[in-house]
Write a structure and sequence with these properties.
alpha/beta, eight-stranded parallel barrel, six-stranded mixed beta sheet, 18% strand, binds flavin-adenine dinucleotide, binds flavin mononucleotide
Length: 765
């Protein structure tokens, strides 16, 4: 094949080498706009796995590259004048310039022709006579731009500013240095990549950037300013720029996240940064570029595969890898953009939060990397939680809300069981809640328990509006208190426009086939075209409903609950006031956020009045409507949480969505935890994270990183009431309360899990 490769970066060169190795008959010419040896940037980091891939693809260039790697193990996080150092991280780095030299020498030795100082035309029409044109022309790819519609390009420019500098100062560890200036925080990501040189990327928020005058400074002045800010890390060594083509403020970049729906168009194929980008803070752009190149060469040369099949396989495999890394990269990018919220953490917690920011490195990964360091982190967590010096998993640390002490941080999330009769919980509920309380969670929530018959979601919902309900719930709270260490929270709600629907395992959210009851909501907005149109509440209706909530609180007290939660999420009655998507009122209860919150806050305040001052209350909110600026945004969620806190909420139960049938939720592991993090650390309130949290490792990471104070699990608890006991057995944690009749089972499980862990460790060693 006759192939034109646009761009002599890591992707283009590796592709050319990989093609020639597989079939020397290919005619491959690289067109690179820069002169030979002229490149911008300093070092790049790799993982061991990327090196293995390089070696397997081409042992000759792989060996040359591996021989030049700088290795380091430690990460140092400098903040507030302290340094937190952890080990076992295993990085390797090489200068970008050196990497390109080695790759271009190797490419030429295999017969690849490289045309330097050769600007390639972006239009495919200019490439007649070539079988394939490879767009390896980087993040700002002109070839991709010329055919943007065909590739389905999605590009997003991120807020922070950064400048890619180098320095002769050699850092012994991968160093994150956070410095406070009068204009805000500025930080550096620094690592050694050669005997005598380190990368030194300086980053800050856009407002800090302008306040420091970087937006109007020459590169020389900006560098001098950075040298002053980071003087204590540089030992008198200079900072250097090699981006000769970028002048003044233009030397400061903003990361552009690129995703393409399709990676090829006619004979044009995207490769490396032209197809996708990953934020520099997770250091994977070059790895992705190299691995794309190897895969593309492999499928193009595999006998029996036609070009369509080859390109389909290339895109399917590589885009999956890219997606995984882009998710991590997004978390990492957002962490640096939101860093202000973590800067009042103690340095150990700040460092932990930084190390786990992308969610690629978990709590237990950190134990494998540096067990002593993690043990000290756990001790710090316990010391702050209890004053005790105890090396135990954070999820077992107690937590206090007013006078209620929770034995640990695990919570059974509220989950409708649709098994009540006329609102009365029965034997099913006794066994269901009893088993989950005995399973060890510190806090147990009831399902949404409705304050009136017409406020039920379905005929199977539990209620708290009749004397029979009080007695039935009392039987359950007695069991929980007599036979477990769990505290028990009553979640109270009113279904509003989402009421009178079938039970969960019938048709979700669909009206009953017969016996529907009339609905009220903030506005006459049906949940969907098939749902009833609710009546917009009058002020008299509001009085009635508020009084129903108060009466339910009083009954909850008589029934023996430890805590009350107000359900103001998921599109039910109170949520229908809060979200502008369901609230179309033109009176004092619609329009601005203050107005939309007026009735929910009135209800909460009245409940708080009726509930003893020594017992806590929480509120469940949807922290986003997943509807962009049209609905509740995470920024607004912070204001909503603050408003409820002012009305006496001790904990914000941070859920999301289910407020609008057209919403576009983004699911995934821990998908709602970022909202709990935002509310906790921007509003400085206690939060509970929930949503696709499944294992103790995740719970420990959330808690230790200060992303939430409690961790709730819903579906995981439906299928495994003993989740917390299992976690205690696996961690060898002995202070967890175990119902005495189950003690033998617990010690057997602990032994079995310990043996399994030892066998796995032996295998790893
Ligand atoms: C600050 C920063 C730090 C980074 N740190 C790391 C890191 O630690 N680890 C890591 O793996 N990655 C890192 N990256 C990302 C990494 O640099 C890229 O992901 C990687 O270089 C992608 O390789 P590529 O070959 O696809 O594109 P590039 O390296 O951008 O190469 C594209 C080439 O195409 C040439 N070109 C462009 N247009 C034309 C044209 N029209 N005609 C001819 N030639 C053209 C360019 O001159 C360039 O040489 C970092 C990036 C930045 C910005
Ligand atoms: C079957 C089922 C019933 C639920 N019922 C309620 C409920 O009554 N009240 C509530 O606030 N959330 C309810 N939820 C939401 C859960 O509390 C939880 O937020 C959600 O399941 C996400 O957590 P998970 O990924 O751990 O399951 C329910 C979820 C499920 C799956």
């Amino acid at each position: 094949m006759k192939i034109a490769c646009i761009g002599g970066g890591p992707a283009g060169l590796t592709f050319a080498i990989s093609m020639k190795l597989r079939d020397p008959a290919h005619q491959i010419e690289i067109f690179e706009r820069n002169a030979a040896g002229e490149t911008f940037g300093w070092g790049v980091v790799f993982s061991d796995q990327t090196v293995d891939n390089l070696m397997a693809n081409d042992p000759v260039s792989g060996r040359l590259i591996a021989d030049e790697f700088a290795h380091w193990d430690d990460i140092e996080v400098h903040v507030h004048g302290e340094c937190v150092q952890s080990s076992g991280h295993g990085f390797i780095g090489i200068g970008r310039k050196r990497l390109l030299e080695l790759l271009s020498d190797r490419a030429r030795s295999l017969g690849v022709v490289i045309h330097y100082e050769s600007e390639a035309a972006p239009d495919l029409a200019a490439w007649e006579g070539w079988d394939l044109v490879i767009a390896a022309d980087g993040a700002n790819s002109r070839l991709r731009g010329a055919h943007a519609d065909s590739f389905g390009v999605d590009s997003e420019r991120r807020a922070n500013r950064f400048i890619w500098l180098g320095t002769p100062k050699t850092f012994a560890a991968f160093t994150f240095a956070f410095e406070q200036t009068e204009a805000g925080w500025v930080w550096a990501h620094a690592y050694r990549f050669a005997e005598d040189c380190s990368t030194f990327i300086v980053e800050c928020a856009p407002a800090t950037w302008s306040r420091l005058g970087f937006d109007r400074m020459s590169v020389e002045d900006a560098i001098a300013q950075c040298e002053r800010i980071f003087a204590r890390y540089l030992d008198g060594q200079p900072l250097l720029s090699n981006a000769a083509h970028l002048h003044g403020p233009a030397a400061w970049l903003q990361f552009r996240r690129i995703i393409c729906e399709r990676w090829h168009h006619e004979k044009l194929i995207l490769l490396g940064d032209a197809a996708h980008t990953a934020h520099f803070s997770i250091g994977s752009g070059t790895k992705l570029a190299l691995e794309d190149a190897i895969k593309l060469a492999e499928v193009l040369n595999r006998p029996g595969l036609d070009r369509i099949e080859a390109l389909a396989e290339y895109q399917a495999e590589r885009s999956l890898e890219v997606l995984k890394l882009q998710n991590s990269a997004r978390n990492s990018t957002e962490w640096f953009e939101a860093v202000d919220r973590y800067l009042d953490f103690e340095p150990w917690q700040f460092a932990y939060s930084l190390l786990t920011r992308s969610q690629r490195i978990s709590h237990e990964n950190l134990r494998v990397r540096d067990a002593d360091w993690l043990e000290q982190i756990e001790r710090n967590f316990w010391e702050r939680a209890t004053g005790e010096d105890k090396p135990a998993p954070p999820l077992f640390a107690p937590f206090r809300l007013r006078e209620m002490r929770l034995a640990n941080r695990i919570v059974v999330s509220p989950m409708a069981t649709y098994s009540a009769k006329d609102g009365t919980p029965g034997d099913f509920h006794l066994v269901h809640y009893g088993a989950r309380a005995q399973g060890g969670a510190g806090l147990l929530f009831t399902e949404m328990t409705c304050v009136s018959a017409e406020g039920r979601i379905s005929p199977g919902c539990t209620g708290m509006y009749a004397p029979a309900h009080v007695a039935a719930w009392k039987r359950i709270t007695n069991f929980v208190h007599d036979h477990s260490a769990a505290r028990f929270c009553l979640q109270l709600g009113h279904s509003g426009g989402k009421g009178s629907t079938q039970i969960g395992w019938e048709v979700m959210d669909a009206p009953l086939s017969s016996g529907n009851w009339p609905l009220v909501a903030a506005s006459e907005m049906p949940w969907s075209a098939t749902n009833q149109v609710p009546r917009a509440m009058t002020r008299d209706d509001m009085d009635v409903v508020r009084n129903q909530f108060v009466a339910a609180v009083q009954m909850g007290l008589a029934a023996g609950f430890d805590m009350i939660e107000l359900h103001a999420a998921h599109g039910y009655l109170l949520s229908s006031f809060i979200t502008p998507l369901l609230n179309k009122r033109e009176d004092d209860y619609g329009g601005s956020l203050d107005n939309r919150l007026r009735f929910p806050l009135e209800v909460f305040a009245a409940m708080r009045e009726a509930w003893p001052a020594d017992r806590p209350m929480s509120v469940r909110i949807s922290a986003t409507d997943w509807a962009g600026e049209e609905g509740v945004t995470p920024d607004e969620a912070v204001l909503i949480a603050e408003a409820f806190a002012r009305a006496g909420a001790d904990l914000i139960d941070v859920s999301a969505g289910q407020t609008w049938a057209e919403a576009k939720p983004v699911y995934g592991r821990l998908f709602q935890t970022p909202f709990a993090d935002k509310i906790r650390n921007e509003a400085k309130l206690a939060t509970m994270a929930v949503g696709n949290i499944t294992d103790p490792d995740q719970a420990n990471a959330i808690l230790t990183a200060g992303r939430a104070d409690l961790v709730a699990l819903g579906r995981a608890h439906l299928i495994d009431p003993m989740w917390t006991l299992r976690a205690a057995a696996a961690a060898g944690y002995r202070e967890q309360f175990v119902p005495p009749p189950y003690l033998n089972g617990m010690s057997q499980l602990a032994r079995t899990l310990q043996r399994e862990a030892e066998a796995a460790a032996a295998l790893r060693a």
